[in-house]
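name: query_chain
kind: protein
chains: 1
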Amino acid sequence: QVQLVESGGGWVQPGGSLTLSCAASGFTFSEATMTWVRQAPGKGPERISDIMSGGSVITYLNSVKGRFTASRDNVQNILYLQMDNLKPEDTAMYYCTKDPAWVAGRRLGGSWGQGTQVTVSS
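structure:
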């Protein structure tokens, strides 16, 4: 019954910004660690960051540190990813997830949203 719905993706030029949102329902969002994941065409998923229930963030992807900021609103049950100074290498499908797991690019479990496409090009 977990539902995760991403929005905010689109096309942007290098150096531009986008804000992704994830509307969550079907579970106690305020008690759950959430994870942003992205996947470029032909490549495996990359874990961007974990956002703990209280708002603490761990960013795993070095290439986005200092440019991406994850946050959450536990009143409205929304997860955010603010992306600044976007680069072509950021082009990917971006997913809002809960307890994601994968091996060799194949999902093993967890809850995944439908994804929102981010395309960065001149």
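note: The two ends are 40 Å apart (CA to CA).
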